[in-house]
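Input/output pair, single chain:
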Amino acid sequence: MTAALRRANLLGALFGMAAVFCFSLNDLWIKQLSDNYALHQVVLIRACIGTLTFFIIVMPFNGGLRVFRTKRPRALALRGMCAVLANTFLFLGLWALPIADAVAIFFVSPLIITLLSVFILRETVGPRRWAAVIIGLIGVLVIIRPGTSAFQIASIFPIFAATLYSCMHIIARRIGQTESAATMAIYTQLSLVLVASLVGLSLGDGRMAASSIPALELLFRAWTTVDPADYLTFVLLGSTGMMGSFLISQAFRLGEAAFVAPMEYISMPMAIFWGITFFNTWPDGSTWAGIALILGSGLYMVWRETLTPAHNPT
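Output:
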């Protein structure tokens, strides 16, 4: 490895760790706010503050208004809708589940990316990676425990979120040669603003909230006036969400994916810490076992990527 590549990988890893810290704080604040506000209200405020953060901090250092130029508007629109739905399902999962469980299930995303890369990008995946995918999926089943009294419908929300998040990455791979990280970030934020605004204007009165399904009540409850005590939380939520999105794009742009990817797993112990400290929720034995299987399979796949082609038959 050359000195330049080592430096690029180090910068990529540092950007990745910073992004993961931002995303982990977002998970914590979303779970705290979801008891008092409609989900689309939280998403809209978060996205508006994130967009403002982009204009102030990111855009001046990335070509100014040129970040709005794109050669792939349809792909960016599709990626934006994936982001809207991924955020919705992830936030529903964070609201309904212990934070460590939701984050652990969401970590099935690297495995889903592997599956999608085969069917969409026509990449080759060997038996070892298929084994890792299967083990990771077993880990998810261990956590959600389908067919038992411990199973919750809400457990599938992080799986949907992870699938849509994976689609975002697949699209980014397809358009990464022509679209910058800043361009993808701003169009994602604008998609969130647009959809959340439309939902708020049409359903923000709460008339759809009367439901026996708790997730629908959260999704469609009436907008409320933001408590001044929550102003700072919303500002931090929006700014760290935007910065996390930009930082993770920069991380994968600068460093090798196999070097940067393990940084995302730092959010798992952070999620466990938030759950214990703020919500007094400890993972049970089955959850610990599932976490171990998911993290183990994901890290194994990352390790396989670090091998040279001559020693990496996948």
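The CA atoms of residues 105 and 140 lie 6 Å apart. The chain has a mean pLDDT of 83.
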